Amino acid sequence: MEFTKTTEQDSNHQHLEKMKVTELLQHMNNEDKTVPLAVEKALPQLEVLIQEIVKKLKNGGRLFYIGAGTSGRLGVVDASECPPTFGVSYELVIGLIAGGDPAIRKAVEFAEDSTSQGWKDLENHQISSKDVVIGIAASGTTPYVISALEQCNKNNIITGCITCNAGSPLAAIAQYPIEIIVGPEFVTGSSRMKAGTAQKLALNMISTATMIQLGKVKGNKMVDMKLSNNKLVDRGIRMLMSELQIDRTTASELLEKHGNVREAAKNYKS
Questions:
Q1: Dihedral class, residue 160 (left if φ above 0, else alpha if ψ from -120 to 50, else beta)
Q2: Do residues 140 and 163 touch, judged by C-beta distance below 8 A?
Q3: Which residues, at least 6 apart from 81, have a Cβ–Cβ distance to it below 8 Å?
Q4: What is the pLDDT of residues 148-182, one digit of tens each?
Q5: From residue 171, how far is each of 50, 187, 193 by CA, in Å?
Q6: pLDDT above 70 for 2
Q7: Are 255 and 225 in contact (CB under 8 A)?
Q8: 199 near 164, Cβ under 8 Å?
Q9: Residues identified as active-site
Q10: Does residue 144 carry a pLDDT above 70?
């Protein structure tokens, strides 16, 4: 079957520049409504990959996201939010982007075209067979990502991918491909839109389901979150008040003493 990039096909909407703002918003919103349905079709693929990630992380491994442009930025965002949300090390989930950290803010020309830098970036983190690497590329053709996964496969490292085109070269390389087919973008080829939203939803599922499986959530609460600002401290106090049926002053003192919701609850003596 010939590979066709549906993310690059012509938009279903014509003459955007002639539309009023209301029309633009309505059409974009209607396109966005299709994204969760596309993600739903990929749930079986997500499930098997997450199960592999959980196994590796339980045995001392790490999770890497690797991508370029919007895809790389989304991976970096998801990785950076795991420590404050779930209280894990910044070394447990790592996001890598073509062009390095400067590319998070500004596009680095031709960085995604390198067929060697992706693996070098992984090697800088002493990548090993204990780890899992997920390549993120809406197109499914990004050389930086594909070449990195090829090297991972040669080194007995589990590979997954998130792409928004069916039958892509990236999906063919990844051991556990996730294909979320969102169709043409509202602005032709602008895969930061529906494709980016689909990738974000998939990443939410991967990191959150993994952390729950690793015991980082109790009930439905982030009991291991880092208390890094007043909002989170207040959330922690309210968690303890509800869980232990205690007043705010007691909960505040308990949290200040232990610095962690889980520890505070565990060590409370009524």
A1: beta
A2: yes
A3: 207
A4: 999 999 999 999 999 999 999 999 999 999 999 99
A5: 16, 25, 21
A6: no
A7: no
A8: yes
A9: 81, 112
A10: yes
